[in-house]
Amino acid sequence: MDLTTLIGIVMALGLILWGIGLDKLGNFVDMQSLAIVLGGAIAATIASYPFRILKDVPKHIMVCFRGSGKYSIPKVVDQLVDLAMLARQSGLLALEEKAEEIKDPFFKQSVLMIVDANDPDKVREMLEKEMDDMMARHDEAAGIYEKLSAYAPAFGMIGTLVGLINMLKGMDLGGGGGASSLGQDMSVALITTFYGSALANIFAQPIAKKLRVRQAAEELYCTTIVEGVMGIQAGENPQFLREHLISCMKQSQKKKLLLKAANKPAGGGGEG
Predict the structure, then answer these.
(1) What is the spatial distance between Cα 217 and Cα 223, in angstroms, rounded to a whole number?
(2) Could you tell me the mean pLDDT of each successive run of 10 residues in the chain, 272 residues long?
(3) Which of 2, 23, 118, 257 is the most exposed place for a label (fewest CB within 10 A)?
(4) Cα–Cα distance, 203 to 221 (Å, whole number)
(5) CA distance 139 to 196
(6) What residue ranges do the domains of the chain occupy?
């Protein structure tokens, strides 16, 4: 479980509350201003997307808190190398039974496609098309929160303008009673700007960024699978395949994988 999003949001809220001071917290509570900003930003976001995308919002939040272990590159590289060894020993048909043990749908489908002896170019084309569709769906998901982060300050400004208009309309400069409430009315008008900035920068933007990080991790994971299964289909040496797959990994991960491979007893699949 990844708690960095929750920790960051709680820290931001805590520091803002500390900066405001608990004794003055009441000055920053105005339900009408909150309705304009929160309600308006959410309503505009709803108007921007179809229900088929919006219904997955709870899933998006869960993705932010899910650990990155699901898209572990070292783990999938080890799996691909093991499959390559099996394929060299017993042929591609031997991978069908192993494919049934794979839980990830994309990985499983990729292995089954090479088992069925499909044309390599068609296999790559189909897998890359599925990856593109997957990334497009992820773009839509992150776009919801990026739109929300844009709408929130805009509605904050709308609320400020509403407050300023009401303040100016209510001023009685001739009678001398209007100037006394000027400071209070101005503070209420500015609260909506505060709400808009807080909603955008404490909630919407961090969630959008975390979804982008998860998207990049999944894209690298799927790319590794595609390159791996294409190498298996081409009959590449398992050791060469490992080195090829880890070429785009972080240096620290490369060292761990190479050290692990060096300590592994040599398998029959590495011959050839």
Answers:
(1) 10
(2) 87 93 88 92 95 91 79 88 90 86 90 85 91 92 95 94 82 59 75 94 94 90 92 88 77 57 51 37
(3) 23
(4) 27
(5) 23
(6) 33-72+121-270
